[in-house]
Every structure is written in structure tokens, then in C-alpha cells.
Amino acid sequence: MYRSHTCGELRSNHIGTTVTLAGWVQTVRKFGSITFVDLRDRYGITQLLFGEELNKVLDENPLGREFVLQATGTVSERSNKNPNIATGDIELLVSEFKILNKSAVPPFTIQDDTDGGDDLRMKYRFLDLRRNAVKRNLELRYAVNRAARNYLHGNGFMDIETPFLIKSTPEGARDFVVPSRMNPGQFYALPQSPQTFKQLLMVSGYDRYYQIVKCFRDEDLRADRQPEFTQIDCEMAFVEQEDILNMFEGMIKSIFKEVKNIDYTEAVERMTWEEAMWQYGNDKPDIRFGMKVCNLKFPAHTFPTKQSQSALIDGVDFKVFDEAETVLAIAVPGCSEYTRKQTDELTEWVKRPQIGMKGLVFIKCNADGTYKSSVDKFYSEEKLKAIADAANAKAGDLVLILAGTEERTRKATSELRLEMGKRLGLRKDNEFKLLWVLDFPLFEFALEDQDGGGAGRWVARHHPFTSPKPSHIDIMINNSPKVDDLDKYLEHPYANIKANAYDMVLNGNEIGGGSIRIYQRELQEKMFAALGMDAEEQQHKFGFLLGAFEYGAPPHGGIAFGFDRLCSILGGSESIRDFIAFPKNNSGRDVMLDAPSEINNKQFDELQIKLDLK
Amino acid sequence: MYRSHTCGELRSNHIGTTVTLAGWVQTVRKFGSITFVDLRDRYGITQLLFGEELNKVLDENPLGREFVLQATGTVSERSNKNPNIATGDIELLVSEFKILNKSAVPPFTIQDDTDGGDDLRMKYRFLDLRRNAVKRNLELRYAVNRAARNYLHGNGFMDIETPFLIKSTPEGARDFVVPSRMNPGQFYALPQSPQTFKQLLMVSGYDRYYQIVKCFRDEDLRADRQPEFTQIDCEMAFVEQEDILNMFEGMIKSIFKEVKNIDYTEAVERMTWEEAMWQYGNDKPDIRFGMKVCNLKFPAHTFPTKQSQSALIDGVDFKVFDEAETVLAIAVPGCSEYTRKQTDELTEWVKRPQIGMKGLVFIKCNADGTYKSSVDKFYSEEKLKAIADAANAKAGDLVLILAGTEERTRKATSELRLEMGKRLGLRKDNEFKLLWVLDFPLFEFALEDQDGGGAGRWVARHHPFTSPKPSHIDIMINNSPKVDDLDKYLEHPYANIKANAYDMVLNGNEIGGGSIRIYQRELQEKMFAALGMDAEEQQHKFGFLLGAFEYGAPPHGGIAFGFDRLCSILGGSESIRDFIAFPKNNSGRDVMLDAPSEINNKQFDELQIKLDLK
């Protein structure tokens, strides 16, 4: 037996007992003829005291950081207690010890504030994983895993494993493929999600399915994307949207409770996609704070039901606004006294390429009731007040106005809002606000080729298995998907079809998304056709699903949560990589393993493939 | 809302209430002007009664098998109750119904005794999954999953996900590989197991790790092998073999209790590998019954510590035994009265190519104390009695004797023992007997090339990370692995090194295996070198692990259970395929998906590979 207790276990009630510990040397401190060693394991740190005699042994066999040590001795009361650690009342008076393994000097310190850079820590990930900060993340990840499983189990869900070696059906993201040695010339694909399998399980009558499962997408890695990632994947039969929303806000609340001890008792807010875009310029708004967008001007077709406010800005011959497709404002609370330097800095911020605006107009709503603006020469104080009022600005606020094309301006306004929210401390780490975003458009229109499927065509916004809202099914059935004039695709009836789809948003991050699915063969075929698949392609790629729909498919729907992302938000971090034991870098490499790597000729021969390097 | 209750839920206390059910039409029975429908879902079957009026509607919209139906009505007492189903006391008097989806006639019946053959059921797996028999298997699988997780969680294990896109380190089984688009010319491999990652996690201090995880091996598929399979994968630090054995027999007992309600209170038997081979001819003996092997003759080097009994058979000039390397016997209880036809059939059985023996010698130990044998002309009755006594035969038993080369004869005897055990009903489905097999040889000697590593060399019997028994480490350190005379490899010191490895055997099946690992860089390098890897290859393949061992690796060990196999044994089936939702066939194909399949030119272009078909 290597140990009788862990390094986090001993308390004053153990004083006098003989115990054996094993762990890693965190620090060694010598004071004259005695030595203190902090011994660390997964459970904590215990102070070891080596008296005069053993100290001599240590002189000949010096301990280094990260040595693996086994020590037996008597638990004793500490003279100067350390209230910061759970074992701080005691120390172990060592009578016997054994160095189980030595350690070279680590390339960085194993501490919360390590001196190791990103690359070094990734190369020595096995050492980085020893740091408390990383350990806490993985412990949180396991707690979320456990809480999700317990909730789903308690609600009658069954974990059913779906295959990893499946069929390549390229569209949307790229598949990773796996050459088959036993079927030369043919390839498996790794699943981008278990989507079709979980739908088949509903057809099979399994009713409530879940899986916490790896998925794979061979995409160019933007920051914080991983080629392999984990989903909490769920599906239910005989349900409507309302059933799913209730079930899964229950799951997230249960995770909050179990993992963070947060009682999230209020109902989760709901908002249509259109309202989210209108109020926040974004389909995953952070609703921890207000600062809603004031839509001064926008293209009529974008929000057909909304009233234009362009009268507020028109008629003064201010070309920037007159020529812009869209003009949006936000009122930043309490910032009316920004200096020239501060407003200049904000202007530079929105002109950065990531934001891409040409400039920033501001109105200071002074505390004394006067208004001051960067466009004073165009707008009277009265007009400025009217605009500020429209933006819901109070005395002391700063109104920021952006103008340009619809998509870019809306995105920029959303980003500016988030940035100001962050600067003002309105996006608090320990506040969690959930939101359901509903009624997404079923289709997007690809003006340019996105995925090899050709330009000028409809693509599924969620995926091709998403059902239209029941009242919109007829629009799909009764209209051809053909778009004659690409410039006017927004006027095509398909542009108005809304999906029975929903996203769960947490603090401005999409943590989950799903939909009620199509379960009738005819409608599924119509959908595939709308996306440009002819009957042959449909049969080749999804024949099994269309076939399954002929044998009594029940109504069903589901959702998938991004497990890595969910953990990172709960852990208060921006980076999912911090919550993955062995992540890959932005080139998809595991720098610790040095993977991917070359394979040998025997492997090429057996797989009957060869390289074709450009 | 599609339903208020499930089809397995209603009891007599619901009588009089109005409910809505949804499910699949199992059967339709018309009696004059009324119709009975059995409606099925995951939870059970409920009888629906359609009265005269609705019956007319049904006449115009006839229901077929597997239609998806929603029905509302009043729960009523049944006139003729069905005690065989939980809902048999009631029926639903339908007032309203809706056909949610139609179904074509299924290609086979959705019943326990279906009329569908294997191939058909695999093609329509989504229908096969509706059958009770298959559903029970997947429910059992989930119950085992859940029980294992709960036990491991309760014992402080953490589920930590390890990567699927790793590095190819071919040896032993073949890797599946995945071309990397972002790193042209390079490939990931899919993990054969998370072995090195779980060891790194021990180096990182995570102490108790588990995962229920998919693994991949590109092997030629023998019956009942799958290219992707699931392991319960576990590792512990600061442990000795005894700790692991205790922890994991606890897990299996806990699974027995949770899943089968079996109290497996007795200690799990233990046996060395040598004893298992000696007593059963097999390293995974089924110990539900005796019929142990009598080793009449065997090569001295195989069991150096054992006494030869060849005096019993020598000296009568019976060439078959005299020329055989090995002669083994078993005493089959109560079969002394086998007819000529029966012994002939047994002789044919051992001569089948899978068994490969040249013949079978038998001794009938008659009830009257006389002995009759197929080799009467060589052996006196006295000698026959001596042999029978050595085989532990009683009056009424039949002694079966096989002779030939050591390996084949031992294997054949083991197979014959299992076959006779089966015929005599000694291998009971509902009896479960666990066994630890210990002290495996560390090395095997590959006389022929097995995996491209070359012939005439040592290969790791378990894997290259397995530690020798502590007392055998010196043999490894102090001897060169070089074998000068291939014929005498058994005399090389390495042949006697035993591993700190253990297998868990259940009813004659290996359900788990593991070892205490090497955790010192020098010993690991020695092991790699013994297996024929030079320093460069070691560094290329396992540099990260050797590196990790330099920074304070703790003593550690672990085990992996074959989850599919464990489920199939607990479910009383021979086939793991029955316990996998979407299995592949013996050519590694998913016939439902039609995968693997061809990929398109764009995919080849992006991956910068091409076919090289022979």
C-alpha cells in the first residue's frame, strides 16, 4: 500500500496517528537542521517535517520540485497554523521516506501564476495539467457531465452510443474521413454530430435519448475552435417545441444548482430571432445588461413589421446617414463626460478591421440637460435630443451611432454594445442569464459558394432536418425554391419561412441549439430539393433516413449543447481549450504528441492510397 | 402535447380518467363493429377500443401495422383482462384519434420471434431496434453503463475525456488513420485505447481516472469483432496490483447487483496464468464446472515446476502417444455409456479444422468398475485404470485423451472441455463465475512476422507499458533480449519474465485486463528496446511518454473492460452485435448507411491524397 491517507485529508483529529502519504514535492524549505516539504496530490497539500536525523539523509539525497515522495510519520500539531489550506492545522513528522521517482526541473513552475507561455504549456501538457487552475477546470467539467447525466437519467433519457465510423455526406462543414482497408477505395467519415442516428432512434421508439459524445469538424480553426469537440446530444419523440424548452431549461438549471450552487428559479426569457436582431443586432444577445439598439434607419425588407424612425435623422443633408442603408444607436449610461481622447479611442475601435466601420457619431447627453455632438453642424440641439430620446438615453449618457450597410452595421453595433458593457463592468462573471432565441429563419441564401454546393441557392440555417414552423409548411410546399433575381432573394417567399428551431444563449454565448425535426418523407424530400439535392443525391446520402420515415416515424425534436463551451462559461473563462484535457492548437496539431504525423509505406499500401501533394 | 401518459403506465386506478396516448400500432383486430388496437411505445402496450362510430372512420382510413397513432379516450376496465402485461387490466375507449404518420408494411415482423434474417434486420436496423429483444439489450447496456459510472464516481474516479485524433504508432493491431487537410501529407490515428493518455493523467496527478470510451482497431474482423468498440477504461496512481484487483472486483460485483440483482458476495477466485494453462489449457477458463485437464505428457520447459506423468502412458509402444509432444486428458462425468456413434461423433468433432486434432482416444470407466478403451490393445485394464485415476475419473465417466503438439493439443483439450461442459448443461446462463488470472508472461516470442515488426523477436503480450513483476525486473535489466537460437527461445531468460498483469474472466470470457505500468524512463526504454525499437523510433513514437516519465511519474496501474462483451455476457448472448445500437458487419460495413463509401474529388483534392488501388 502506497498511502494510508491523501494529502488533503489530515486534520487535527488525526494528531498522534501514524500515517503514510504519497505525492509530489511542491516546495522544499530548509531551516538549519530541519526541512519542511509541502507534499501535493490531487486532494491537497500537507506539510512534512524532516527532523535532524532524516535531514542528514536529505543532504545526501536532495529533494527537488516535483519529486514523487512516499513518507510515513506521526501527525503533529503545527506551531504556526496555516488557515489558508484545509490541512493547515497539522504537519507530518516524518519517520521514514522513500523517493518513488525523481523529476527533472520542470520547464515552467507548477503554480496558478505559472511562468510558462502557451506553447510551452501545450508541449508539456502533462505538467500543465498539474496546475490547480487547470485541475479545477477539469473537475468542473466532470461535475457538469455528472449533473447533466443525472438530470437526464432522472427524466427517463437513455444513453445510447452511436457509431463513429459513418458515411461521408459533405455539406456545411467538412468531414474528416477514414480510409477503409477492408473496402479499398472507400472511406468512412467521422460524425459531425449523431444527428441522423438520434433521429433513427426516435423512429425506433427510444423516445428519450442522450449522449455526451465527441463530434468532429474539419474546419479552418478560428480561435477557440477545436477539430474534435463534445456535445450533450439529446432527442425526444412525441414532443412539441414547448416540451423541449421546458425539459432543457430544467437541465441547465439543474447544472447551475449542482455545479455552481445557483438557484436559477426564474423562467428563462424567450425572444424571437427577429427581436434579438432588432434589439441587440445579434442572435445571441447578452441580456445581463440593457443598452438596447435604437433602429434609426434600416432596410424595409429586413424588418417588415417594424416602424422606421428615419425622420429623426433625415432632411439635414448629413450624407453619412443619408447614404447609409442602416443607422443604429446605443445609449451608454453615465459616459457623457467622455473626453475627446476617449471618444477618439472609441472611433478608432470601431474602425478596426474586425469591426470595419468608417466612423462613429456621438451625442453627449449632458447632466445639465444640454446636448453636444460630433455632428452639431448638421443637427440642432432639439434634433439631438429627439435622437437621444429615441435611443432611451438619460441625462449623463453617451449615445453612440453607427451607419453603413445593414449586416455590418448591425454586427458592429452589437460588438460595440458588448465592448461598452464590458468596460462598464455590466458583464459580471458571476451573473448568469439564460435566454431562448426562437423562430429562426429556416433558410439562408448563399450568394457566394460556401461549401462547393454552388452559389445563388438556399442553404439550411440550422440543418436540413429542421422542420418549418407548422404554419409555414405550406409556403414551402406551394412555392418553388428557384430564385430568379439574385438581388431580390429577400423577396422570395422562402426568405420568410421560419424554423421550429431554438437556441439557448447564456451570457451572450450560444450554448445549445436544436429544432423540431421533419418526420414526413415528402417534406424531407422537399427540403433536400430546396437545398439543391436531386433525387439521386438524396438517395445516396440520406436514403436510410428517407427509408426510415416510411415506416412510422413519430414527431420528434431535440437539442445539442456545446459541452466545452458550456463548461468554459460556467468556469468563467473565454477559452474552451482550458477545459479540455488534451486540446489541439489552431493548426489542429497536438504539439505534445506531435500529431498528426507521417505514416509508413506499409500503411499506405494496405489502405491503397497515396499522397498527392500540391 | 402529444400524450398525457405512456403506453406502459395506465392501471385500474386510472379507470374513468381521460387520457391521450401516442405510439405504434402493434396489432389491429376487428370484431364486427368494433376494433381493438394494441398501441406500443418504449414503455409498454395498451389496448385501444374503437367503438361503432369511430369504427366507420377506421373503415375509410384503415390502420396498418407500425402506423403512428395518437388516441384520446377514457380509461375503462377490460372485460377479459390480460395478466401477461402490466396494463392488462384496462383498455382505452377511444373518443378521438389522429394518424400521426403512416407506415409501409415492414420487411419483417416487429416481434421477439421475427421472421427477418440477419442481413435484412441489419439493413433496416431502425426497425430491428423496435423489437423487444433488442430494446432489452440496449436497456441492459445503459444499466451497466450507469452502474459502472456510479461505482467509479463513488470511489473518487473522474471521467476525463481523451482525444480521438491522435498519433499513429503502429504495432500490434493496425490503426485507422485520418488524413489531415490542414497538415497535408500527415495523418491522425484513431485511438486503439486511451492507454498513453491515461498514463499521462496519472503523471499529471489525477489519481483515479475513468472513461467509457470508443476505441478503434483496423483488424480483419473475426466473427463478433467490431472495428469500433467500447471500453470501460480506468487507471489509478499510487497503487499495487492488490488495490486494483479489489477496486475492480468491487465494480463488477456492483454491476451484478444493480443490473442483475445478484449478490456476488464471495471473493473472486484467483489463479496464475500457469495454473490456468495447466488445469484448463486456457488463460480464460470457465470455472463454472470442473473437468480439469490431466497433464499426462508435456514438454519439460513449458511447466518447469510440474511433475511429468508420462510413465502412465509410456512403454507400451503406442506410437500416437510416444511421438506426441503433449498428451492431455479430461474426465467427462457420467458419459461412460456413450455409444460407438457418439464417440465417433466426438472424434469427428476434434478432427474439424478449427480444432485440428488427428484423433481422440477414450476410456470408458464403466459403472461396474471395468474399463474399456479405444486403445485396449496397447493398454491393460490396469493401466487404463491408472490413467483414468490420474484424470480424476469416477465410475461412469468417460475419459477423453488428445495428443499432439503442445499448443494445439492444449487448445483443443480446452475447446473439448468447454464443448462437453455445454453439452452436459454445466455452463448455465444464469450462473456467473468471476476469476482473476494473474502473472502472465511479459513477452511472447514471434517466430513469424506478425505486424511488420519482423520475425524472431519478442513482442509484448499485454502492451509495452506493462511492468514486469518487481522480482523479475532484474532479469530484464541484466540480460540482452537477443535470441541466438530461435528454436530455443523458450530457454532465454526473457521467456520466464512474468508481468504485473491481470485479466478478469467471466464464465470463460476475458471481460477485462490490465497491468501495473512501468513508470521509470530507463525501464520503459529497456522494454521498448526489447521489443526491437531503436532510440530514434522510441523517441518518434513515444517521446511524449518518455518525457513525461522524467518529471515525477508516480507508480500507477489500471484496467480496461470490454464493455460490449460484458453486456453480452450479462445479457446471456454470445454476440456483442446484439448489444450495439448500430453495429457493423464482418466486412466492417454499416449496411444500413451503406458505409464506407466513395468520397468526391473535392475531398481528395483538399486532403491531397489519391487512390492507389491494386
UniProtKB/TrEMBL annotation, chains A, B:
It is found in: Cytoplasm. One of its GO terms (molecular function) is ATP binding. One of its GO terms (cellular component) is cytoplasm. InterPro entries: Aa-tRNA-synt_II, aa-tRNA-synth_II, aa-tRNA-synth_II/BPL/LPL, Asp-tRNA-ligase_1, Asp-tRNA-ligase_1_N, Asp/Asn-tRNA-synth_IIb, AspRS_core, GAD-like_sf. Residues 195-198 are annotated as: Aspartate. It catalyses: tRNA(Asp) + L-aspartate + ATP = L-aspartyl-tRNA(Asp) + AMP + diphosphate. ATP binds at residues 217-219, 226, 510, 562-565. It is an enzyme of class 6 (ligase). GO terms for biological process: aspartyl-tRNA aminoacylation. L-aspartate binds at residues 171, 217, 462, 517. The keyword Mitochondrion does not apply. It comes from the Bacteria. Its EC number is 6.1.1.12. Keywords: Aminoacyl-tRNA synthetase, ATP-binding, Cytoplasm, Ligase, Nucleotide-binding, Protein biosynthesis. Catalyzes the attachment of L-aspartate to tRNA(Asp) in a two-step reaction: L-aspartate is first activated by ATP to form Asp-AMP and then transferred to the acceptor end of tRNA(Asp). Homodimer. This is Aspartate--tRNA ligase. The lineage of its organism: Bacteria, Pseudomonadati, Bacteroidota, Chitinophagia, Chitinophagales.
